[in-house]
Write a structure and sequence with these properties.
The complex is a heterotetramer of chains A (about 140), B (about 280), C (about 325) and D (about 650). Chain A has helices at about 20-25, 50-60, 80-95, 115-130, 135-140, and strands spanning about 10-15, 35-40, 60-65, 105. Chain A has about 140 residues and is an alpha/beta fold. The radius of gyration of chain A is 15 Å and the shape is globular. The model of chain A has no long low-confidence stretch (mean pLDDT about 90). With about 280 residues, chain B is α/β, with parallel strands linked by helices. Chain B folds into 2 domains: about 1-120, Up-down Bundle (Glutathione S-transferase Yfyf (Class Pi), Chain A, domain 2), CATH 1.20.1050; about 135-280, Rossmann fold, CATH 3.40.50. Chain B contains 13 helices and 8 strands. Chain B has helices spanning about 15-30, 55-70, 80-95, 100-105, 120-135, 155-160, 170-175, 195-200, 200-215, 230-235, 250-255, 260-265, 270-280; strands at about 1-5, 30-35, 75, 115-120, 145, 180-185, 220-225, 245-250. In chain B, the strands form 2 sheets. Chain B has a 4-stranded parallel sheet, with helices on both faces. The two termini of chain B are about 30 Å apart. The mean pLDDT of chain B is about 90. With about 325 residues, chain C is α/β, with parallel strands linked by helices. Chain C has 3 domains: about 5-100 and about 150-180, Rossmann fold; about 105-145, no CATH class; about 200-310, no CATH class. A 5-stranded parallel sheet of chain C has the order 2-1-3-5-9, with helices on both faces. Chain C has a two-stranded antiparallel sheet with strand order 4-8. In chain C, a hairpin with a 2-residue loop joins strand 6 (about 135) and strand 7. Chain D has 17 helices and 34 strands. The chains are: A alpha/beta (about 140), B alpha/beta (about 280), C alpha/beta (about 325), D alpha/beta (about 650). Chains in contact: A-C, A-D, B-D, C-D.
Amino acid sequence: MTTEFEPKIVGFLCRWCSYAGADLAGTNRLKYPSNISSIRVNCSGRIDPTLVMKALALGADGVLIAGCHPGDCHYTNGNIKTLRRFKLLQKMLDQFGIERERVRLEWISAAEGDRYAQVVRNMTEQVRSLGPLNWQRKMEVTA
Amino acid sequence: MQSYLYFPGCTLRATARDFDASAKATAHALGCELKEMEGWLCCGAVFSNVNDNIMTKAGPNRILSRAQRESSTLTTLCAGCYNVLKRTAFHATHTLTPQQAINTFNEEQFTGGVEVLHFLEVLRDRIGFDAVEKAVKAPLNGLQVGAYYGCLLLRPSDEMSLDDPNRPSIMEDLLARLGCTPIDYPARTQCCGSYLSVNSAEPSEALARDIVQSARKSGAKVLAVSCPLCKYNLEIGLNTADSIPIIYFTQRLGRALGVDPQQLQLGEDQLQRIREAQKIEAM
Amino acid sequence: MTKQKLAFNWASSCGGCEIAIFELGTGLVELTNKAEIVFWPAIMDYKYQDLEAMPDGNIDVAFMNGAIQNSENEHIAKLLRAKSKILVAFGACAYTGGIPALANTTSRDEIFANSYKETPTTVNPEKIIPETKVQAKEGELTIPEFYNTVKTLDQVVDVDYYVPGCPPVGEQVSKVITQLTEGPLPPKGSVIGASDRSLCYDCKRVRDERKIGKIVRTYQTIPDPQKCMLEQGIICMGPATRGGCGSPCLDANMPCRGCYGPLPKAIDQGAKMLSALSSIFDAQTEDDIQKIADGVADPIGTFYRFSMGRSLMRRTKR
Amino acid sequence: MSSTPKRVGVFVCHCGLNIAGTVNVDEVVDRAKKQKGVVFAIDHKYLCSEPGQTLVRDSIKQQHLDAVVVAACSPAMHESTFKNVVQSAGLNRYNCEIANIREQGSWVHEDHERATKKSHIAVRQAIEKVNLNEALQPIMVPVTRRVLVVGGGIAGIRAALDVANAGYEVYLVEKSGTIGGRMAQLSETFPTLDCSTCILGPLMVEAYRHPNIKLFRLSKVEDVKGYIGNFKVTISQEPAYVDVAKCNACGECAKVCPAEVPNEFDMGLTWRKAIYTPFAQAVPPAYVLDSKNCLGLLPQACGECKKACDKFGTSCINLDAWPQKHELEVGAIIAATGYELYDATKLTEYGYGTNPDIMTSLEFERMLSASGPTSGEIRCPSDGRVPKEVVFIQCAGQREPETGLPYCSKICCMYTARHAMMFHHKVPDGQAFIFYMDIRAGGKGYEEFVKRCQEEKGLLYLRGRVAKVYDENGKLIVRGVDTLSGKTVEIKADIVVLAVGMIPSADSHELASKLKASLDMYGFFAEAHPKLRPLESPTAGIYLAGAGHAPKDIPDTVAQASGAASKALDLLSSPTLEREPTVAKVTGELCSGCGICIPLCPYTALSLSPITKVAEVSAALCEGCGTCIASCPSGALTLRNLTDEQILAMVEAIVAS
């Protein structure tokens, strides 16, 4: 590659903690790579594994799911339900051969702007070093 | 026989042979051995707080990467080496240093797999003070000993985590088990002046005087230390009038365990001064 | 009235779908009164030339079962498409990839290595693996190319209707044939011969509290025939699978394995089932959750047993 | 989903240079114009300004827009602002989407090109989403016109009184035996030096007697259900074992009580009995038995107090009382949980706990107080001698990341000045030394007050930190540095007073998780917005007052309490309130009634219909979290205006770019 590979990362952020945390990163003018674009959902519990896999199938190189810390969920324990789904999903993605660094679940509170920035920096670098996922093409390969 | 991988360091091979010898002897008396590590080298003597300065980090990392091959722990005596090595390990495990770069430079991998111990920790956490107390043959009935810590053993506390940086007790606890009366005095965690003594003696002498006086005022007859440089600073430049006998805690321990003074390399002159200072036949 | 022209063919499949048609029994005879079967290699000696000889659109309804795993499958699929007015993906393999599509969890090379070299019963001293062309003294011999990724029928040709099931159950088959031969025709792309609701809607088993404390595999227990399989810790694909089969598996006290495929609004059957199942794990802490999740021995094989070909990921990364 | 494609208008805000400084706004506009369905796109310097809003409103009319995308700051800032604009232009408010190109765009990226590209993606996401938004009407729910105030300190009392005086009922919950809180412990208050209890006392009585205020002392919040306007709260209350109506506070019971415990009101400097009055002005004015320190109630171990009361008193003691639970329904909750002091024993360099003459500021405060252990005389706790040298250490363990208190507690500079001054008034020949980092006296009359103290002779302000406090042969030595003279100083002190930091009260974390209100990194209650919504928690219906929100002095606390009260009153002023209609929805024909979703709903908004056998959603209960939707295996459940289709459309907008 002549130009460095720029991963595309989809971030599903819960509205009450992680999206607010991401906003705080902005208010504090913390810098992080622009590779992530966020989608605001009310609760990380909204995230159906289907959405994660579809994102990858559509061409995302990484997916970040971020919610409130356990015990702090605005909806009591939506994040725990996410954790349940995530644990099994992770097991299956292993089978599909998708590296764990590509799909991450993180707890980021509304006060942790710096943590959000850190997670994004770290994840972007990890995914960058893994290279493109290109699932579309993998599926087409028949010969 | 339980064996602990051991890093002596340069000074213990030069001016502080007695520290080295007495530690090995006491370890033996306690039924374990200090096994010297393969191919050790100078720890660098001072831990550089500049984290991207790879050069200063290369040495200690090399030591630890070698120790890693032999054991999961590395025991030290000199407070300086202890400070440098323990902090190096801490910085490696908490990736505060550019570990990748250092390892590439060293062509040896250190990934933080070594716990750096001070011999005091070995006594407290591995052998246990109870066991030490059991092994005491010649209890030092009430000898008033002041423990001197200095800074390197304890600070920065979050990285060293040996004891409370402001009110440490590990040496006092040990001395008490040996039958001594540990003397608590304010200056026991104060800095001895360290390398200041190399280029400008006065300030370090002033500091040393403070410490010794503070100890004497509180009734200490002897000082036990764990660092050759501290010992040097506290001894040099004090005229005998306001000085105080200073020995390594390992020598004190050795005596209590009934180890022969020769093995502890306690010179007759030293013993003599202690006797004078102490007016009682404690040694 | 002119008889409808019907064709049946199989691609990469076990042949169970062919048998499913025989489930019509005497109905088959009545069928031949209304319709003429012009192509059915499984039961009579038709040749591909016969098919090639037909004018385009000659066949009214063609039923193709089986997945597309090699160049022959694909060639015939295209041929049949050209010759037929209506092409039906018949059965799980043609519709969602079925069992053959589980080959997508490995690769052609692994499959060859396994079948032609590694299996204990194989005697293959020269370690020969199939080549598409070989020179023999008779001249050049060719065999179809084996694909690395198994496809569904609609991934190689345009498909009009889908009939799920491994195999489609008898009464659905007759319904489908009548529907397609006599009309009225459903909108193109419809899944026919199945219900739009999940199997749970038809399931007679009793449901109590929706939670799973531990995954139990069928060989480890004899399920209570009255109680919901999930609540006994047995993974039952019912919630994420189309009904209409009449739940023969559950009647035989076995959990649904998902052959009737994803529900109308479900993008991916496996992902949906995974989500539904894990959502009701009875655990709050990471470790406890992990324990239950570890109980799922083979997620892909369990959640995509029949729908790998139609799944979002379609294959593993190889 | 709308059949005919919507005519979308895109409005990109410069936010002065906040956005335009990094993002190429023109390019974002041009690229937006090329998007499918976009019929109009324009930029503006400040979209939230009146002209900006007018631009949006007029364009909607002139361009016949069906939907609007605003690319500006975070939706947390102005989503409602622009939804209102859209509504005022005659569109449904849900035909508006915000693209966050500031907090998650211009402010976090340096590279202009990339920031611009990402902003474009954000705009595309918003376009995709708004295209699929359905027009919704808000759900109206009734409001329970009652308020719960948690915490009976000055903040709680003030808030309760304001709400009560406005004519609404208030439940005031206090964990201890009386209201009054920390302020009751104070001797004087800065800068006016008026007596704390003298100004607090009347308020306590007023609150206690107020017909609209129901006080639950010895109580804590057990459980909170429901949502703004409709909270259901469970309170658990310990019995006082003394009948308030009958007790005349004769004190006979305490005389005979054999159980002595440190008196928390005096910070443990004195002792009290297990049956006691917290302090003279405590309300209700009756004795309380604390069961934890009583020799035993089940089975009854002693019962001396009851005997004495029956004999000499009004026989008002009932030792067989039981804890009670109260179910309360309120519309709003005010959290006024207050503060505690940082554990000074953790500051080993100052030796707190090793010598009784090393004390915290609040202990010293008690000693100054006429109602305190020495009735206002200053004595060394060790031997009762009158101290001559007193060293005050400000910022003790504060503004110090290592202790976990990097923040400033705000009040210490002031009360330390006050303490030093009071000391000097009481011991005229004494000498006070004050170690400080810098003096923070922002507040009405504060700076003048500190100046007065500094100029008073006998008060010596030393700018610098104290390295250690140690005991040398029975004398306290304070070693520190005076950075102005650049010398290290050693002071022989009789008393050392540590101005330790304020931390959130211990149980505030538990309360927060019950209220589902978020806390900041130090455990104080977080506000919805530091500038624009400082009185509200991000969780609707929860309001904040006092030091539980951040370190505060009394004037700030009282002001915030009244503010929180008026916020609550604002909510109560109408009998109904609107709720977001973006809730879960079931498509009956697709639902098979598998029931997976039912137990997942934290609000019991889901149920299986006995008739149709399929799931139903109660829109009034649903909070729209969407966890049921993610779990639905047949895709029969959807979240209004955040459907899978919409999320995936946004995902595509991200990866397709």
